From TrEMBL:
Gene3D superfamilies the record matches: 3.30.300.30, N-terminal domain of ligase-like
Domain AMP-dependent synthetase/ligase: 40-384
Lineage: Bacteria, Bacillati, Bacillota, Bacilli, Bacillales
Start and end residues of each AMP-binding enzyme C-terminal domain: 426-501
GO MF annotations, alphabetized: acid-thiol ligase activity
Protein name: AMP-dependent synthetase
Organism whose genome encodes this protein: Brevibacillus panacihumi
Length: 525
């Protein structure tokens, strides 16, 4: 209760008038995401809420359009409690409208990956029996036998689409039935049809702790504008969207991340908060670091931070980089502040309030401080909060004596070399400290004598030259014997997923042939 009072006080929501507005929003819509938007419209009215490509909406405009869209979805598409709506869209205003409208209808909101292949998209449709599918025009060509009457485009000039339906019956008084929100469902695998569902039930009280952590550790209350560069369909993106909508801030989005355009948007809108994966930050710093001077909070998540990127950001922009650790199933759990990253550029930080973490071995027994094991998490806002079950993250890490957490890799990436557990991520992090290494990824390969050995793919910095012998000589005193790579491949580029992570699965499938198949090149050591 004290945290709730603190948050309401910081948001200036403890006056009788604001409490009346909140009560009115709940009375009109019930408990769903539209309630949040209705309250924000009452509080912030004509303040700019959302800026997209060719669109700028105030809070009142966004609310009016989302409410109208909900009425159309209920009447024309029979979307209501117990139904399922899949949203496969890039970051744009129509996706934001649809999220609020579907939640208000009582249906479950499935946030689907917009960046995927045709085969993966069709497998998603086969697995999930959606009552409504909203997608961008580029995905519409992949629908196959999906019923046209259950499909909506995000934008279109003539066909039924979100951008036109939100204006239908605009002159009539909209009457919506109060609904409890359906579930907000994230897909943990991101791009594969076999991805697991992470189901979350929106709840103000369950999310107080991560909300409180955002306000206090990231100090975002004084900020006015946020740019969501990460996909909204990722849990990280939609969480920041809802947080800033609750605070009455301006949110900037763009359909595709392009570093030149991203830098321009940050400069033009004087963005103070940006959500990124490390690769996005790396590209923006290389493009135009001067455009990023307005940033007070760079919230990085989704992939491991390169220690050199931490140093470069601090040198060029100051103490503005935060490292966030969470999962689709368990939500946000650990935050590293700029001060924490000065303690160690490799830490993911300290856990936030309301989180319990245990680190266990393969027999599910807790390990000692400093020893690696699988991170298991329990909190109120996870997908399993009702049963209070521990969630196995699949991440291997350890906690030091000062309660800082560190990652060693994934449970499925660990190899056993001559009977010793070896984590490729630890070797990658050493490689990334080499002054001439731009990026690196390490995988396990079969070995006749050791069972498994490591193979390293190294992308050198522009104009850098390093010989095989020099790299092995540099690694030798820094790694244990079982960590030494069997082979090193210098590549012209590395494969990345749409979320900015190195695509290890592609390397594991194709091995040294990846360079040839992607028109890249390599030197085998």
């Amino acid at each position: 209760m004290l945290k709730l009072l603190y948050i309401l006080n910081k948001m200036k929501l403890l006056s009788p008038l604001t409490l009346l507005r909140l009560t009115a929003a709940v009375y009109r819509h019930g408990i769903n995401l539209m309630t949040l938007l209705n309250f924000s419209a009452r509080m912030y009215g004509e303040k700019l809420a959302l800026v997209g490509e060719g669109e700028s909406l105030t809070y009142q405009q966004l609310y009016t359009q989302a409410e109208q869209l909900c009425a159309v979805l209920q009447k024309r598409y029979q979307l209501t409690r117990g139904k399922k709506a899949g949203l496969a869209c890039s970051n744009h205003a129509s996706l934001v409208r649809a999220i609020f409208a579907v939640s208000s209808s009582g249906a479950d909101v499935y946030l689907l990956p917009a960046k995927t292949s045709e085969g993966q998209f069709q497998r998603l449709l086969q697995k999930h029996d959606f009552d409504l599918l909203v997608c961008d025009e580029e995905q519409s060509h992949w629908l196959g036998d999906f019923p046209s009457g259950k499909m909506l485009l995000s934008y279109h000039e003539t066909l039924p689409a979100i951008n036109s339906l939100c204006f239908e019956r605009a002159n009539e008084k909209t009457k919506l039935q109060r609904m409890s929100a359906g579930k907000l469902v994230l897909l943990t695998g991101g791009t594969t049809g076999g991805a697991k569902e992470a189901r979350h039930k929106p709840s103000l009280f369950h999310y107080l702790d991560p909300f409180f952590a955002f306000l206090t550790r990231l100090n975002i209350l004084p900020c006015h504008t946020a740019y969501i560069a990460t996909p909204i369909y990722h849990g990280y993106g939609v969480a920041v969207l809802l947080l800033f909508m609750a605070l009455g801030k301006k949110v900037v989005v763009q359909q595709r991340f392009e570093p030149v355009q991203a830098c321009r948007l940050i400069r033009e809108h004087q963005v103070e908060v940006v959500t990124v994966v490390p690769l996005m930050l790396h590209k923006m710093l290389r493009t135009n670091a001067a455009d990023l001077k307005s940033l007070a909070c760079i919230a990085s998540g989704g992939a491991e931070l390169n220690p050199k990127l931490v140093k470069e950001t601090a040198e060029k922009l100051g103490a503005v980089l935060y490292n966030l650790y969470g999962t689709s199933e368990a939500g946000l759990n650990i935050i590293a502040t700029p001060q924490d990253l000065r303690y160690s550029a490799r830490t993911i930080g300290r856990k936030i309030d309301g989180v319990r973490i245990k680190i266990v071995d393969e027999h599910n027994k807790e390990v000692a401080v400093g020893q690696p094991g699988q991170l298991c998490i329990q909190n109120k806002w996870s997908m399993k909060n009702r049963s209070k079950a521990w969630i196995e993250t699949g991440d291997v890490g350890y906690r030091d004596e000062k309660s800082y957490y560190f990652l060693c890799g994934r449970t499925d990436s660990m190899i056993v070399s001559a009977g010793v557990n070896v984590y490729p991520l630890e070797v990658e992090q050493i490689l990334l400290t080499h002054p001439h290494v731009e990026d690196a990824v390490v995988i396990g390969v079969p070995d006749e004598w050791y069972g498994q050995r490591l193979q390293a793919y190294i992308l050198l910095a522009p104009q850098a030259e390093v010989t095989t012998e020099e790299m092995f000589a540099w690694l030798r005193p820094r790694l244990a014997r079982n960590q030494q790579p069997k082979e090193i491949l210098f590549v012209d580029r590395l494969p990345y997923t749409h979320l900015g992570k190195v695509d290890r699965k592609m390397l594991l499938r194709n091995g040294i042939n990846w360079g040839r198949e992607s028109n890249g090149s390599f030197r085998r050591c």
